[in-house]
Amino acid sequence: MAGLLRRIIPCLDVDRGRVVKGTHFVELRDMGDPVELAVRYQSEGADEIVFLDINASADNRPTALDMVRQVARSLTIPFTLGGGLRTLDDMYAFLDAGADKVALNSSALAQPQLIEQGARQFGSQCIVVSIDVKRQAAGYYRVYSHGGRKGTGHTAKSWVREVVERGAGELLLTSIDRDGTGDGYDMAITEPIARATPIPVIASGGAKNTAHLLEAFKRGADAVLAATMFHSGEFQVGQVKRDLKRAGIPVRLDY
């Protein structure tokens, strides 16, 4: 992906209409209103926003759709919605409400054909497959579903190959081990996948500072997802991008 601009993507984990953040996918803390935070990150220079409805169910679908409509009215940058999308109709509803992309995770594992169907119906560029992984004692990385609670029979590399073949347009690769820790991205799995995969790979899980983002870019990531470092207010997207630019990373600064 040499020559392409690298992207900074704040991630907003949403639960019942509020942004939350935890560690290892648990111990959630309230971080604020999703629309207000998204607008703030856009003004700071974010390239995209990802919203993940972490406890999605049919019960909160109307609430989530209303949030997407509010976000679509407020943002000019692309945004992705993930969580609880089980059918083509679900994907259509959120894309129709204003999302630019949808992220599939547990539903893609349960029904891999959804990836192909979504890519055919809406275009591969609209289909992000979110992959949550944990390192196993034997050294390989296992894919987990249901918010990191349920192990699957897939290794990270085998599942990546399959979703690429099925037409995914982008991968969101999250290390459950690193999530919320501030220890940096798990490059032992992110780098080989990013370098071997023909579609963009977004590194996720563990970013705490600009050095973590810089390492991910230098080791092959096309984009980086970050939450806590931006939610805390310690880092602003624009300053991070200026620092990355000085370090030789091609980023968009026209904001």
Q: Helicity level, as a percent range? A: 25-40%
Largest sheet: 8 strands, parallel, barrel
Q: What ranges have pLDDT less than 50 throughout 5 or more consecutive residues?
A: none
Q: Specify Rg, calculated over alpha carbons.
A: 17 Å
Span from first to last CA? 23 Å
Explain what the structure shows:
There is one protein chain. The protein is of the alpha/beta class and 255 residues long. The chain has one domain (7-246): Alpha-Beta Barrel (TIM Barrel). Helix content is 36%, strand content 27%. An eight-stranded parallel beta barrel has the order 1-4-5-6-7-10-11-12, surrounded by seven helices. Helix 1 runs parallel beside helix 2 (61-74). The two termini are 23 Å apart.
Looking at this protein, list some descriptive labels:
alpha/beta; 8-stranded parallel β-barrel; 255 residues; single chain; TIM Barrel
What's the SSE blueprint?
Elements: E1 7-15, E2 18-23, E3 26-32, H1 34-44, E4 49-53, H2 61-74, E5 79-82, H3 88-97, E6 101-104, H4 106-110, H5 113-122, E7 127-135, E8 141-145, E9 150-155, H6 156-165, E10 170-175, H7 187-196, E11 201-204, H8 210-218, E12 223-226, H9 228-231, H10 237-246
Parallel strand pairs: 1-4, 1-12, 4-5, 5-6, 6-7, 7-10, 10-11, 11-12
Antiparallel strand pairs: 1-2, 2-3, 7-8, 8-9
Helix pairs in contact: 1-2
